[in-house]
Amino acid sequence: MSHRASIETRATRRAWWLAAPALLWTLAFFILPFGTMAVLSLWQRTDLGLEATWDLGNYASFLANPAYIQALTNSLEITVTVTILSVLLAYPLAWIIAEEIPERFRRLALALAVIPFWTSYVVRSYAWSLVLAKSGVLNDWLGAVGLGPLDLANSRAATVIGFTHFFTMLLTLSIYASLVQMPPNLRRAAADLGAGAFATFRLIVLPLTLPGVMVGAFLTFALCIGDYVTPQILGGGNDLALPQLIMLQIGRRADLPMAAALSIILMLAVTLAYLGMARWMKVVR
Amino acid sequence: MTRYLACALYMILLYGFIFLPVGVLVLFSFQDGRFPIPPFQGFSLRWHREVLGDGDLMAALGNSLLVAVASSLVALTLGFLAARAFATARLPGVTALRGALMAPLSVSYLVIGLGLLASFNLMGLSKSLWTVAAGHVVINTPLCFAICAAALGEAQVSAERAARDLGAGEFRVMTLVTAPMILPALIAAFLLSVTFSWDELIIAFLLSRFDVTLPVEIWSLLRSGLNPKTNAIGSLVFLVSALAILSFELTLARRK
Amino acid sequence: MTKTTLLAALVGSTCLANAALSQELNALVWCDHTDASFVAPFEEEFGVTVNLKEYEGTGAALSLIETSQPGDWDVLVVDGIDVPRVVAAGILGPLNTDELPYDTLFPELVMEENHVIDGVTYAISEKYGYNTVSFNSEVFTAEDMADMTRLWSGDFAGQLAVYDYYLPVMGMIAVGLGMDTATLSMDDLPAIEEALLALKDSASSVGEVVSSQTAIATGEVDILVGGGEWVTAGLTADLPNLDWIIPEQGAVRWSQSIGVFADSAQPDLAQEFVKYVLSPEGQAALATSSCYWAMPANAAAADVLTDDQKRALRWDDQASYLARALLYPAPDAELDAAMQDVWTRFLAR
């Protein structure tokens, strides 16, 4: 074997050793549990315990139950709304921090945007319910200005507000990172060639930052659709979302197989979103 | 001028939106009364005192720190090693392997937690802070891997090769050459992992028994009755971390 | 090693050894057992540590038990109505009845049909209360609340919240419709569902203990369906305008029982804990816990409770209340699944 080849084989072998711990951990604590869930979803819960029936009964129950389908629809509607809203709110803020704010204040601006999320997630959601309550802070202020009270608490609007609050911050960071990596010469070149500000944005900046936006949006979609805390605290039991349905199976019936089936369905939704995004990115390119 | 005003207005509105719940939280943690609802009745440190004296809450705080730091160290090590693996050699099936390592990012924490719950139960393992930490390593390793992989470029690979040519062993290469070169990325990955682990509720809730983390303890508090203590602990955590970040920023800025 | 280091090491290792030897009792309980002051006397007397894990419904408790190992738990607190189910699943072990205060228990709370199966006693009642209607007395009077059917007639649209627990709320509706909770069947469900969905249309929110308390305490709603003294009694000091009533149709009585796990590693210590909880001191502490107040099952607690506490619990009215309240429904597996489906539809509405 030539000298170069043996170095490369040694390098490959060493690489396997290096990657092994992470791969083994992922295998043991992610892939296998996921497989367990998939297997469990094919079992049934009976009075005496878990029965290995090996059928699609849980999935059939899901499709046959309009309330369950409604939960999935609710989750999708909320998640899409939150994603779009967060992107629309975050992009301008990311732009302002990246372009308008002098460089020495940029990290401070980012830090200020992130610090409020260093309170506990649970407590922060609860604080939103305080703000949005009928006799809460928001209505207090609106009353002071003479506007009527808004009944936002315990509703889908509250859930969307709570989610958007967090994901706007996340997307701001992600879009900022993408904006900052863009070479400034491109925009200068476009300006030299006579393009106006808006045209430059539409034809240069937007396409170049779109991958960053899409990745952030996908992360938002995945995290939002799978989140249990915010709809539970802010939704007031009025708008059942899929994660709540899953926890209901655990909390009420101890029905792990049904919970597993619903989880697989949740993952299917996320996978479809991922494939949609990947295909969209390919088409755009 | 209008552009400046428009930007300023937008920033004020959005930062106002971001700080609104936290402001309310901190304000009402000083509420002199049992109910954290307006109108604000007067200043009192009662709830903060009760929080600091609440053994369960303080223990949960300690547990959260322990789990966050431990799981982040493990996740960072795993991610760093794996990132080096992909940077230094061409492994077969690289896309599939990379996909497997990044997959947990897109899976709901609820699903990860349920899967681990079912597996640990089948394996006969009791729930504890160890099981929680194992779950947190799963969610943090993809992050650390991605950040380290992004930071390991040609410069690091050549530096490593040079060090190895000079006779350094693998361990020395990693710790004395590679790690210092990508230290900012390592710190960023570690801090991000600590943040995610610190605030994580569902996996901690499903996989712990008596020793719980702070989010789980707060969740129990919230389910047990109307309690301004939750505001107090939330604002305490916020104030301490805000101070930490701001002082970090200022000292770093001063060094520059 | 210097002398001081050696000494420190010795002290350290003894402490560690002591800590390891200190016995631990693991209890799965409702949130009213988690006050430090409640378990402190027991911990001191026996020199042990009591670990408490709380749950918010029997299903959650069963989930926890199923995802635990044998020996993980020693003491179980569970709704009285669920004891037969829990015994059938082999979770509870026999209870030693010799030292338990059966002579001073409220007679309605002995509930032999739930606690004694095939001649063996598995649990004993420790606390009880009502799922009925709580209301803000500044907005509504007792006469307004006397007719339960007004709750789902639309008279109180947007002003009420519902407690998120299917058994008592559906039981209440059954009582309101004139049914007997002990003989509920699948045929009764359509009528119950109709009233339930009408109730949801009037409801501003559905939530568990703290959401329910928050909703009525903050004035978000003025009526809580499924509430009772457990919502208001502990709040009367701060909010005296919160009241509760049993409507003329009646209401539903809940009770929680305490027992010992069949696979507990320390059944004697667990038995001692049960004795402590049923003692007058334990009962008084339990009745006035910070999570929710309610009547103790052992009437001997009257000697330890203050007059104000007894007033908040309506101690003197209990005889008439007990007469007018029915037990939770006790559905078989099929009916239970059907009821939970109805509840899911209720939540989704």
Give a written overview of the molecule:
Chain A has 285 residues and is an all-alpha fold. Chain A has one domain (68-284): MetI-like (MetI-like fold). Chain A contains twelve helices and two strands, in the order αββααααααααααα. In chain A, strands 1-2 form a two-stranded antiparallel ribbon. In chain A, helix 1 crosses helix 12, helix 7 (156-180) packs across helix 9 and helix 9 (197-225) packs antiparallel against helix 12. The radius of gyration of chain A is 24 Å and the shape is globular. In chain A, 46% of the residues are buried. Chain B is mostly helical. Helix content of chain B is 79%, strand content 0%. Chain B has twelve helices and no strands. The radius of gyration of chain B is 23 Å and the shape is globular. The two termini of chain B are 32 Å apart. The termini of chain C are far apart. The model of chain C is unreliable at 4-20 (pLDDT under 50). Classes of the chains: A mainly alpha (285), B mainly alpha (256), C alpha/beta (349). Chains A and B meet through helix 1, helix 3, helix 4, helix 5 and helix 7 of A and helix 1, helix 3, helix 4, helix 5 and helix 6 of B.
Strands of chain A, count: 2
The largest sheet of chain A, given as strand count, sense and whether it forms a barrel, is: 2 strands, antiparallel
> Which shape of chain B, going by the Cα principal axes?
globular
Q: Which two chains form the greatest contact, residue counts included?
A: A-B, 81 and 79 residues
Number of extended strands of chain B = 0
State the helix count of chain B: 12
Round the Cα radius of gyration of chain B to an integer and report it.
23 Å
Mean pLDDT of chain A: 84
Number of domains of chain A: 1
Kindly report the oligomeric state of this protein.
heterotrimer
End-to-end CA span of chain B: 32 Å
Report the portion of residues of chain B in β strands. under 5%
Shape of chain A: globular
Kindly provide the name of the CATH class of chain A: Mainly Alpha
Query: Could you say what the CATH architecture of chain A is?
Result: Orthogonal Bundle
Order of helices and strands of chain A: HEEHHHHHHHHHHH
Q: Structural class of the helices, strands and pairings of chain A? A: mainly alpha
- By secondary-structure content and strand pairing, the structural class of chain B works out as mainly alpha
Query: Strand-residue fraction of chain A?
Result: under 5%
